[in-house]
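User: I'm new to structure prediction. If I give you an amino acid sequence, what do you actually give back? Let's try with this one:
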Amino acid sequence: MRGETMKRMMLSKAVKGYLTFGVLWIVLSDFFMSKIRLHLNTLMYAGLAKGLVMVILSGLLIERLIRKEEEIRHAKEAQTMITRIINYMPDVVCFKNMQGHWRQASEETLALFGIQSTDYRGKTDEELGVDVAFFEVPIAFRWDQESEYRAEKTMMTASGEERIYDVIQIFLCSGTNEKLGVLTMGRDITDLKKKEKRLMKSEKLLVVGELAAGIAHEIRNPLTSLKGFSQLLQDKYPEDDMYFSIMLTELERINEIVEEFLFIAKPNAVTFAPRNVSTILQETLLFLEAEATLYNVNMFLHVHTNHRTILGDNKQLKQVFLNILKNAIEAMPQGGTVTVHLYEKKGELVLSFQDTGIGMEKERIQKLGEPFFTTKEKGTGLGLMVSYKIIHAHNGTVQVYSEKGVGTNVTVTFPLA
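Assistant: Good question. You get back a string of structure tokens that encode the predicted 3D arrangement of the chain. For your 417 residues, that looks like this:
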């Protein structure tokens, strides 16, 4: 674009120069010829020579004009081709001159900053109202020692979505090594980062599963003996029934943890059959009614659809709902409300669990479902991990939204049967 403008300016100067020279040539040559007394034949030859000079100069100028016009046309075609290539790329591409004015940008760049309908050329970041952090280079970075700057940057798009970009910045120079400006390129690596995180989580789960299997089998045998002998002693010494009851309750709690370990290591065989989710939810809410009353928590179920059937395992689905609801109840030590909505959306059954509890920070939400991560004082971190595993085994998804001091929403979706 800049080269094309310069060529047009040079062309304009050449035309103006030719017109100026032509006028001066005609006026001055006629003037001198009128002052000098020449023979008629000589005067005729002088006139012919004058015209010949003008013809030669005109030819040279026309040739130069045609050549320049060709150069401008080729430059314009090259510019159009570059623009098309840039726009076909799925990356952010932006070129600025050394003063920070935008010269060229891809459609992806304009969409990222929400300036598709803005005439951006010649304007700065501030004038366009874009996030300057995307283009910033640390002060400590040494351009004289490095040919490019590269970093991962998190951006909030115009639609409000958070995306991660791999950003590269380099200087563009002319043939004389003069710096023309800075080229910034950014590739969206959000999905790649998510895949890396899932891969790391899978590897971690594999290790935890192997560890869990070993621990569970080592604990289960002595645990069975302890439970059996405790029951025998309870029958033998009925006067100490209260102590034995406490012992058996705690042994049962250990057994539940062992069961969770075993599920992580090797899930039980499941029977997938059409299940009415509304019925399972009602049974779960009824089961937790006493615990909810203890915490002064009110629970409500709102069903907004007649399509309530999915393919799944009754026991496992109930385990998922129990874990989610128990977490919601325990997140409201001062009492509150748990509201469950059941509705259909785009061929899926959606379950929304909303509590009015203490809420969580964003950092904690991202760790939910990881082995041994828990927000509870006496939790093991296995309940949600097992729940997530069951949901995924049912081809479902789970999303958690939470705000500190407001509450938490857990949204689970399953494909309808």
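You can read the tokens as a compact description of the fold. Here is one thing that stands out. The radius of gyration is 39 Å.
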